[in-house]
Design a protein that fits this description.
heterodimer; A: 351 residues; mainly alpha; 76% helix; disordered N terminus; B: 264 residues; alpha/beta; four-stranded antiparallel beta sheet; 9 helices
C-alpha cells in the first residue's frame, strides 16, 4: 500500500488536474453530442416542411411560418406539414424519454413500454372505442391514454412484491401484452370491415392524424410532461447506484422512481394517443443513447432527441423512399425488431 | 475528534412476524472502529441497515446527534453518515472516477453545480484507496478487491463523519481483506472517521476492532474492547462454537482457535 503513504503532494495536484481535465473532456463531448443531435432534429424538421407531395422553396416555407400568406405554400406548410412535424417531434421525444426511463429504472432493456404491453393497452382501448363505439378524434385519444394508464397500473399491481423487481415487471408485462393482443384480435374480428380498417391503420402508428385539432390538447401536455420528466430525471445518476446507495447519498429512491415512472407512463400514453403505437421507438432510443453519451447526466436529453430523430427520419423514409406511402410505425418496426433480436442474442438486457 | 453521535434507542425492527431486532439499545463510542459480530441471522446487518435509515424500525428510533434520523432531512444525514451496502450495484460501464464523483451528491445543491472542492475530495478519495491509477477504468474491468476499494472511495467522497460498512470483506481473499481493514484503520486514526463494520470474520474483527458488539437473536449480548469481550464463554453463547482464545502473536489481541471435537 505505498500509494496510501503518499501525502498530498504535487502528484496529487497533478492527478486532480487530470481528473478535472478528463471530466471536462467528457462534458464537452456530451455537449457536442447533444448539439449534434439537436442539429439533426432541426434538419429533419426542416426537411419535413420542405419536402412533401410538392417540394417547396425554403424561403417560401420560412415566410409561411412567420405568418405571411404565400399562395400555394401557406396551406401545405402551416396546416399539413407543420402539425405533422410537431407531432413527430413531440411524440418521438416522449417515446424516447419514456422508454429510457422505464429501461433504466427497472434495470432491463426489455422493460420498454412497447414490449411490456403499455402500448398494447393503449391500442386495445383505442380500437375498442373505434370499432364498438364508432368513436373518432379526441375520444379515441382519451381511450388510448386511459388504456395505457390502466395497463401500467395492472402490471404494477401484479408485479409488486415488497419492492419492484425489473425482471418480474418484464415477465408480467409480457404476459399482459399477450393477453391484450388477444383482446385486439377479438375486437378486430368482431368489427365491420370499415371500422377494422380504421383500427388497423391506427395500430400501425402513423402521423397522418397529427393535425392541429389533435395537437391542441396533446402538444402542450407532452411539452409539460417532457419538462417535468427531464427535471425529475436529474436523480437518475444516483438512482442507478441502487436503492441502498441512493438512500445513503440522500436521495429518496422510492419516491423518485414513482414520480419518474408516472411521467414515463403519461408520456408514452399521451404520445400513443396522438400517433398510435409507433413500434420500437421507446425501445430503441435508450440503448442507443446509453452507447453514445459519456455521462449519465446527458442520458435523458439524448434519449428524447434520439426518439424524435427516429420518428422524424422514419416518417421521412416512409413517405418518400418507397413507391407507396408507408406509416412510420412500419419503418421503425423494421429497424427495431432486428435490434431487439440482436440484443437478446448478445444477452445484454441490463440497462 | 468526530463530533457526531449515532445511537439506537429501544429499537425493534422486523418484516412480518417475529422481529429481527427486539428492543435494542446501542450508543456508538464516537471514535475508532466498531465491529458488529454474530452468527448468521442474528440481526447484525438489519441493525446496520436501520442505523443507515434503509429500514424503518417498527418501534424505537435511531438518533443522530440526539434527533430522530427519520425526522432529519435525508440530504443532511447523508453529509454525516455514509454507507457501503453489502452488494452495491454499479451501472454498466461506469468509470471509477464517475462512480466516486457520485459520492459528492449530498454536498451539491438542487441545480447540481460543482465546485472546485469536489475534484479535490474525489482525488483524495481515489488516492487514499489506492485507486488513482484506475480512475478512468470501467468498474466491470476491475478485480473484486479493486471494485470494493472503488466503492469505499465513493463513500469517502461523501466525507462522512460516520462510515457504515455491511460485510465489506465478504468477496475478498485474505490479503485484500487485510488491506481493506488497514485502510479503515487509517481513516479512523488519521481523519477521525467513526467506522462501523458488520463483520463475518471473527478473527479479523477482534484484530481490527476498537469496540466489539456481539449479537444473538436480535439482541446485544456483549460489547466492549475485544480483549474484554472475547472469551470462551462468549463464543459458546453467541456462536455455539467450542474454541480456545489465545493472544494473537502479532497484535496481542484475542485470537480464536476452534476446537474440533472429532480430533481432540
Amino acid at each position: 500500500m505505498t500509494v496510501l503513504d503518499t501525502a498530498r503532494t504535487a502528484a496529487a495536484t497533478a492527478s486532480a488536474d487530470r481528473l478535472r481535465a478528463a471530466r471536462r473532456r467528457n462534458a464537452v463531448r456530451d455537449a457536442v453530442l447533444i448539439a449534434g443531435l439537436a442539429a439533426v432534429v432541426v434538419a429533419l424538421c426542416t426537411a419535413g416542411l420542405v419536402f412533401g407531395a410538392k417540394t417547396l422553396a425554403l424561403p417560401d416555407v420560412l415566410r409561411a411560418l412567420t405568418g405571411q400568406t404565400v399562395p400555394g405554400v401557406s396551406f401545405a406548410v402551416v396546416e399539413l406539414r407543420l402539425p405533422r412535424v410537431v407531432g413527430a417531434l413531440l411524440a418521438g421525444a416522449a417515446f424516447g424519454l419514456g422508454g429510457m426511463l422505464f429501461q433504466t429504472l427497472l434495470r432491463n432493456v426489455l422493460a420498454s413500454p412497447d414490449v411490456i404491453g403499455i402500448s398494447a393497452g393503449s391500442s386495445a382501448a383505442a380500437i375498442t372505442a373505434i370499432s364498438f363505439f364508432g368513436a373518432s378524434g379526441l375520444v379515441v385519444s382519451g381511450a388510448a391514454i386511459a388504456g395505457g394508464l390502466a395497463t401500467a397500473l395492472l402490471i404494477w399491481v401484479l408485479a409488486y412484491r415488497r419492492g419492484l423487481s425489473g425482471l418480474r415487471f418484464v415477465l408480467v408485462g409480457i404476459g399482459v401484452a399477450a393477453a391484450l393482443q388477444a383482446v385486439i384480435s377479438y375486437v378486430l374480428t368482431r368489427s365491420d370491415v370499415k371500422a377494422a380498417e380504421q383500427a388497423t391503420v391506427w395500430m400501425a402508428g402513423s402521423l397522418s392524424r397529427s393535425l392541429w385539432d389533435q395537437l391542441a390538447p396533446t402538444a402542450p401536455a407532452l411539452l409539460v410532461l417532457l419538462v417535468i420528466a427531464l427535471l425529475a430525471a436529474r436523480a437518475l445518476p444516483v438512482l442507478r447506484l441502487g436503492d441502498d446507495s441512493a438512500t445513503a447519498l440522500g436521495a429518496r429512491p422510492q419516491r423518485s422512481r414513482i414520480l419518474l415512472i408516472l411521467c414515463a407512463v403519461l408520456l408514452v400514453a399521451v404520445a400513443t394517443s396522438l400517433t398510435g403505437p409507433i413500434s420500437f421507438v421507446a425501445f430503441l432510443a435508450g440503448p442507443i443513447a446509453l452507447r453514445l453519451v459519456r455521462r449519465d447526466a446527458a442520458l435523458p436529453l439524448a434519449s428524447a432527441l434520439l426518439g424524435a430523430i427516429i420518428v422524424l427520419a422514419g416518417d421521412a423514409v416512409g413517405q418518400h423512399l418507397f413507391p407507396i406511402t408507408l406509416p412510420v410505425g412500419v419503418i421503425t418496426g423494421a429497424i427495431g425488431a432486428p435490434f431487439l433480436l440482436w440484443l437478446l442474442m448478445r444477452g445484454r438486457t441490463r440497462a | 475528534m468526530s463530533s457526531h453521535t449515532l445511537e439506537a434507542k429501544a429499537l425493534t425492527v422486523g418484516y412480518d412476524g417475529d422481529p429481527v431486532i427486539d428492543g435494542l439499545d446501542l450508543t456508538l463510542p464516537g471514535s475508532g472502529i466498531t465491529m458488529i459480530v454474530g452468527g448468521n441471522g442474528c440481526g447484525k446487518s438489519t441493525l446496520l441497515r436501520t442505523l443507515a435509515r434503509l429500514l424503518k424500525p417498527r418501534s424505537g428510533s435511531v438518533l443522530l446527534d440526539g434527533s430522530a434520523i427519520a425526522q432529519l432531512p435525508t440530504k443532511e444525514v447523508a453529509r454525516i453518515v455514509g454507507l457501503l451496502p453489502q452488494a452495491p450495484v454499479a451501472p454498466d460501464g461506469i468509470s471509477v472516477a464517475d462512480l466516486v464523483d457520485r459520492g459528492r451528491t449530498p454536498h451539491r445543491g438542487w441545480l447540481g453545480g460543482r465546485d472546485h472542492r469536489d475534484d479535490e475530495v474525489v482525488t483524495d478519495a481515489l488516492q487514499v484507496t489506492g485507486m488513482t491509477e484506475f480512475a478512468e477504468r470501467s468498474i466491470d474491468e476491475l478485480s473484486g478487491g479493486q471494485r470494493q476499494r472503488a466503492w469505499v472511495a465513493m463513500a469517502l467522497a461523501q466525507e462522512p463523519d460516520i462510515l457504515l460498512l455491511d460485510e465489506p470483506t465478504t468477496y475478498l481473499d485474505l490479503a485484500h481483506q487485510v488491506e481493506l481493514l488497514q485502510l479503515l484503520v487509517r481513516l479512523s486514526r488519521e481523519r477521525g472517521t467513526q467506522v462501523v463494520v458488520v463483520m463475518h470474520e471473527l478473527n479479523l474483527a477482534t484484530r481490527y476492532a476498537d469496540h466489539l458488539v456481539a449479537m444473538r437473536d436480535g439482541r446485544i449480548v456483549a460489547e466492549g474492547a475485544p480483549g474484554d469481550v472475547v472469551t470462551v464463554e462468549l463464543l459458546r453463547g453467541v456462536f455455539d462454537l467450542e474454541a480456545v482464545v489465545i493472544p494473537d502473536p502479532i497484535a496481542g489481541t484475542p485470537m480464536i482457535v476452534p476446537v474440533d471435537v472429532h480430533r481432540s
